[in-house]
Amino acid sequence: MVSDKKSPLSEDWLALAFGLALLAVCFVAVVAAGGANPLAEWLALPGKWSQSPSEGLADKGLGLAGALIATLAAFGTAAWVGGQRGGQFAAAFVGLFAVALVAFVMAKQTVVAYYGLAYALWAIVLGLLVSNTVGTPAWLRPALRTELFMKVGLVLLGAEVLIGRLLAFGLPGIGIAWIVTPIVLCSTFWFGQRVLRIESPSLNMVVSADMSVCGVSAAIATAAATRAKKEELSLAISLSVAFTVMMMVLLPLVAKALGLPPAIAGAWLGGTIDSTGAVGAAGALLSTDGDDTALVAATTIKMIQNILIGVIAFAVAVYWVSVVEPGQGEQRDKPSVLEIWRRFPKFILGFVGASLVASAIHAWHPQGPELIDAVVGGSTKTLRNWCFCLAFVSIGLETHFRTLARTVRGGKPLVLYLCGQSLNLLLTLLMSWLMLGVLFPGAADAIAQP
Amino acid sequence: MRSRSRSKRAVLAAGVVVLLVIWLRMLPTIASSPRHRAIGEQLDRAGVDAGALFYTDHPRFWRANTPQASPEEVSDPPPDFAAPALGSGV
How far is B81 from chain A (nearest CA, A)? Predict the structure, then answer.
């Protein structure tokens, strides 16, 4: 993103190196331990709680301390490589980590979690609360490395993008998630540029991607690929969260009112509700005793959409450096391959590379699924969540309501979201009916079978 | 100048108090309602984390063969809720 002080190139290479190093350490630990992940008990997030935060923190002390030490070691080294003073960074990082911990605790309350109000929102809210009242303390500023946290998190996320899983729902899944989604993304972006004439193409792309693909994770990936401003990402996430809450309550009611069969209704929810978690909750509302077809269809379609973010992030990064950025300059010549490479966000290579390697191990190694599950489930997933949460706290701490208001001015992002989501709702419903009602009527039953 | 910074601190303190009241009083009350508990149990049974950011955050979509992971994270889907051909190298 644009406002970090270091050059994007060095930040990119740092993120690539440290993201891959963390993945390598976790992978070696699992292989050395013979399959189980010895790091799992040393890395944790707060757990779910209902009545008191202590429920979610019980037995997590070791894992939370381990997560602090691991992230401090990784980012402290990156800061030192980047020329920052270690002591100042460490003190600031501990403070930032504490705010991120509070954001996680807030998000893990069962009512909050049920409505899909994920930690990203609370991390930004807490940051905004501090920065717009007393101001971000000077001692905390050395740790505000938003871009680094986000890109390292994305490289770690790459290991979770397992390409083989796009076949989990066969052809219907590919039709619903991989045909409709890119059509909606491209149409919405075009609409934003040509009809609404949104000033910032990166804001247009981030809103279009988080609406059409998979909410916060797609917003993060495209924001990093387009070097969007922090307030643009904050705005896109706020829009996504607000509409997620509305849609997860309303869409199941609409599906029931329309009399949609469970498979089609589930696929419709999975393809349209932004948040991955809220899709599950909405699918559960359509499930009845002994029939979880809607829930299975919804979560499987969303999973296939999740896999799409690897391709989307790569394609958007290439499009940005080869078409959008050259078009914004005074000289509008077609950039050379060397120029495209110079501008290309290198962390994307780590993201896509991690995805390809993890997918290959998962598909072809005899113990591939076990290995990947142990690496991801036991360690990198936890680290990825911490990286993103630290990034969102940093965004909140660096954003002022004035700049946020400037981004919202005219209401164009809201109009973009509404128009894009309307198209998404129509096309996904049509494709779900075509795939699961006409062409492959037994597909959803097959995946719901034990 | 000093009164301005004092008022900013007061706004921050008020914000913190509002958040504490919501999270420590209101939300626990809602969470203890039978309807909400039933929904929570249904999601747990289905292996769905409603706060998931990515599909791997849903317990039902990864096999979690890490014995050290927390029970919440490794909870297997019930036998009548088989995940679709995952972890099989498709």
Answer: 6
